[in-house]
Design brief:
- With 315 residues, the chain is mostly helical.
- Helix content is 62%, strand content 0%.
- It is built from 20 helices and no strands.
- The longest helix has 21 residues.
- The N and C termini lie far apart (67 Å).
- It comes from Xenotaenia resolanae.
- Pfam families: RICTOR_N.
- Belongs to the RICTOR family.
- This is Rapamycin-insensitive companion of mTOR N-terminal domain-containing protein.
Length: 315
């Protein structure tokens, strides 16, 4: 029906598909993925019939239900595709629809399903963090996602960065991993030894792809040696500069300083390495007009220079 003429798609069938997509997992319905896939196809061809019956919320609920990266990305990209065009953007509610993917991070009492047993809450929360992380990274890999999550005012990016200032270690840990992935940086191992963490992300460290059976010399050279094609700009740098500028304008550096100066040594080490990487990246790819304030971290300098706190904390 969608292929022949999606505009004639029966609303009764759409209602049934959305019902299965919304509650199918709780009912252990084996049709749930097929139903959600058809809703996505229909949303691209006839967004009006899907939006008016709450189908976009079903898609976004399925995003938080899915821990498979390819399916998760396909679902969130459907909504991002609608946001990308003026004629279909009207169907996506501003500040409501896309922000749903942030809920596992921003709502400390988040429950995806009201009937989740108390004993399964921790495991359920971890899986929601993973799904949300995949969706956030996918959103930041598209222009429509970046523009919607970084818009001026009460934006999604400000909600995420604000979480770094709240002493919830579980959320901070997951959020740092999201930031590492957004900026395409390797995540350090969990340790209380700073040098060990630093060595674990050293580009020159031995990697699995450098073995004789895999990439061997070529893979090692691609990582360590500078690229020889310097005659044109690297568009990846343009993209990273754009995202980095948006995050810094929303207070990311001061948010990381809050984690650096926290009592959790493992998180502090990860945040310190990320702060160093982002300062280096900003110094390398941001224009001078945007980088004059980057090395002024008043909170960090004040704590390092203050005699009102212990020497160990100052160090």
């Amino acid at each position: 029906i969608i292929t022949v003429n999606a505009m004639l798609f029966p609303t009764s069938v759409a209602n049934s598909l959305i019902a299965v997509g919304t509650d199918g997992l709780q009912e252990r319905d084996r049709m749930v993925r097929a139903a959600v896939a058809i809703i996505c196809e229909l949303a691209l061809k006839n967004p009006e019939v899907v939006a008016k019956r709450g189908g976009l919320s079903t898609i976004l609920k399925s995003v938080i239900d899915c821990q498979l990266s390819r399916i998760n990305e396909a679902l969130i990209t459907t909504v991002l595709h609608l946001l990308n065009h003026p004629c279909t953007r009207q169907y996506v509610r501003v500040d409501v629809e896309l922000e749903q993917i942030l809920a596992p991070f921003t709502d400390f009492h988040y429950r995806h399903n009201a009937d989740t047993a108390e004993g399964q809450l921790k495991e359920d929360r971890e899986s929601r963090f993973l799904s949300s992380r995949m969706a956030i990274v996918a959103a930041f890999r598209s222009w429509s996602g970046i523009i919607n999550l970084c818009k001026v005012g009460n934006s999604g990016i400000q909600s995420l960065i604000g979480l770094l200032c709240i002493p919830n270690m579980e959320v901070r840990k997951c959020l740092l991993e999201v930031l590492y992935e957004i900026f395409r940086l390797p995540v350090p191992i969990v340790t209380e030894d700073f040098m060990e963490a630093l060595q674990s992300v050293d580009p020159a460290r031995f990697q699995d792809t450098w073995r004789l059976s895999d990439g061997f010399v070529a893979a090692e050279a691609k990582v360590i040696l500078p690229h020889r094609a310097r005659s044109r700009a690297d568009l990846m740098d343009n993209y990273l500069a754009f995202v980095l500028s948006a995050f810094i304008s929303s207070g990311l550096l001061e948010g990381l300083v809050e984690v650096v100066t926290s009592n959790d040594d493992q998180l502090a080490i990860r945040a310190t390495i990320l702060l160093g990487e982002l300062l280096h990246m900003a110094n390398t790819i941001l224009p001078h007009s945007h980088s004059h304030h980057l090395h002024c971290l008043p909170t960090l300098i004040n704590m390092a220079a203050s005699f009102d706190i212990s020497q160990e904390k100052r160090l």
